[in-house]
Design a protein that fits this description.
By secondary structure, the chain is of the alpha+beta class. The chain contains 9 helices and 8 strands. The protein is globular and about 50 Å long. InterPro entries: DSBA-like_thioredoxin_dom, Thioredoxin-like_sf.
Amino acid sequence: MKVEIYSDIACPWCYIGKRRFEQALDRFEGKDGVEVVYRPYQLVPDAPETASPHRAWLAERYGPQSVAMDARVAELGKAEGIDYDFDAALHANTFLGHRLLHLAETEYGAAVQGDLKERLLKAHFSDGVDVGDREQLTEVAVAAGLDRARVAAYLAGEEGTAEVRAQLAEAREIGISAVPTFVFEGKWAVQGGQEAEAFLQVLKQVAAETGTAVPAANACADDACAI
């Protein structure tokens, strides 16, 4: 079974959704036969290359409610073992990070890509790393097992740019409008950071090949990030 997860490095619900899906996968009897691949999506594709404080950016976009938004996500994250530090987090363009994830998938495989995704999310949300900075991205990639020289050369050039832009366009074409979105076998979609039990049920339904589409779980603003 192939599961493609559309998400953004700068999406807090994508972090929660990743952890919950992994909990479900650990409980799924057929987990050894599941391939998980991360696909790119950008919530703010026009974010500047120069990073800025997350708190200030969110307040400008959502006003006073931004504080409560961060607080709620931080509280929910604790239950999943995530330590959000929104005071340290930086608003940055995530395109380079998505290029790096593409490199990890194509040259190192899905497992390494998944590890890199986890490290990028932690770097962005917990460690105050600028995920739009080539040098800082290189350090995260090396920690995930990627070759330093290869990563530095890759990020310095344009490799992977066309491919990632094509994947971003494909996401729009198939109707991805909020993340995370989990696409099973290219047919069935679940949107949002659902509870682990919901993901487990979908895994079982898809594996059973019932011949009917698995209904997408109800999505709402509380468990997904939308444009």
